[in-house]
Amino acid sequence: MKSEGFAYAAMAAAGHSCIDASRKLAAQKFTSTELVGLVGLLDAAFLSSVMFGTGMFDSNTISQLADVNMFLEVLVGSSCIKVVVGYMYQRALHVSPLSVTVPYLAFTPVLLVFTSYLVMRESPSTQGMLGVAIVTLGGYLLAIDQSGDAEGKKPKGAKTFTPSESYLVSVLPNSAVPGMKLEKKEDKESDQVLITVNDNDNATKDVPTPARTRTYKKAIEWISKGRSPLLDPILALKKEEGSLLMLGVAALLSLSNSFDKLGAHMAPSFVVFAALQRILMAIPVVLYLAFTSPSSFKHLFRHFPLMAGISIFECGAILCYLKSLETLLVAYSIAAKRSNVLLSVIVGHLIFKERICRRLPYVFLMVGGMILILLA
Predict the structure, then answer these.
(1) CA max distance for the chain
(2) What is the pTM of this model?
(3) C-alpha separations of 183 from 34, 177, 240 in Å
(4) What is the pLDDT of residues 300-333, one digit of tens each?
(5) Using CA atoms, how far apart are residues 203 and 210, in angstroms rounded to an integer?
(6) Contact 26, 35 (CB under 8 A)
(7) Rounded-to-integer distance, Cα 76 and Cα 276, Å
(8) Are 194 and 184 in contact (CB under 8 A)?
């Protein structure tokens, strides 16, 4: 039974990799709001068709549940959390660089160890928790590497510094070193601090360098060499709104994932829970799109195959994920589903010709963590 659960989790991971690739292609034609709203509408329509078409739901389905009130609370709660998470996710990406936001999503499996115990009283084994921790570490490192590649191009002659480095630069005066000019400005595309360091050998020739100036120069040289960005997401918590938002996203996702398992177990079928949840999630995002950009609905007809393809991948991934929860602990299922980043790396290499050699150590680390979970 456990192997069956991992098989469904693996299919959910494959589905999410297909979603990533198809959304990346669709992002060239549609805005994020259009994608979320229109695909959410199709998700609700497809899953509702399956639910009603198979006779899983009728007027008496809800009333026959053992605890109707608790089921409705879990259903509405999980749906609202996912809608809020969608807004927080988009807001985090808007106000802060990818490199200090996306890596926090890797912490969801670890947070699930705590939330699943509080909600479902689930307790993974020691080996299983070690596997979850290793998968989380691999996902964190891989997310940092991928988000670093996604940052905007910096202007010629400028140096882009990470939050921890830019803080040091920010305390240096523009005339810290004779002949060395620091031009500090914000890059709107990547939300980072760009520093242009102009050296003028003629200006500094035969000019005595005070001790304080030498300290400034050493600091600039140390910063310019660049340091490991592994701690940047953590250091950014003090100054980046997006980092705090994405950490909140990871925490809320861990809670909603626990609610997903509880709701799927209480519902007549996991398909019914998925359909009702998607209907509730679609209502606010579709209404928002209708008020802000009603002309966007024309894309449903002009680009229906593409939109339908993304929605089918999403529905398949949702159903496989909920099915895996029947036999797996939530933390194990999410850790297995998180392996979709491995497939995304491969898809990125095959379709988008992305370089993956330096990412292989992180991939192997995640595979090792998954092996520990499988053997737990």
Answers:
(1) 91
(2) 0.69
(3) 38, 13, 22
(4) 888 899 899 989 999 999 999 999 988 888 888 8
(5) 15
(6) yes
(7) 9
(8) yes
Other C-beta atoms within 10 Å of 138: how many? 25
Segment holding 113, helix H or strand E: helix 108-120
Mean pLDDT, consecutive 10-residue segments, the chain of 376 residues? Answer: 80 80 77 85 93 84 82 92 84 70 75 85 83 79 63 46 44 44 48 47 43 47 50 63 81 90 90 94 91 89 90 92 88 75 67 67 76 74
Token readout for 55 is 């006779």
Q: Residues 254, 302: contact at Cβ < 8 Å?
A: no
Amino acid 26 reads A
Helix/strand/coil for 182: strand
What pLDDT, in 10s, does the model give residues 220-265?
A: 444 444 455 556 666 656 666 777 888 888 889 889 999 999 999 9
Contact between 184 and 170 under an 8 Å Cβ cutoff? The reply is yes
Alpha-carbon span 257 to 55, nearest angstrom:
26
- Helices 32-53 & 304-324, crossing angle to 10 degrees? 60
Query: Which residue matches tokens 């999980």?
Result: 78
Q: Which tokens in the block code for residue 245? A: 């938002």
DSSP string, 207-240: ----HHHHHHHHHHHHHHH----TTHHHHGGGT-
Cα 38 from Cα 53, distance rounded (Å) = 22
Distance in angstroms (rounded) separating the CA atoms of residues 38 and 300? 7
Specify the 3-state DSSP secondary structure of 178. Answer: coil
* Helix (H) or strand (E) segment spanning residue 158: strand 158-161
Give the β-pairing of 180-187 and 158-161: unpaired
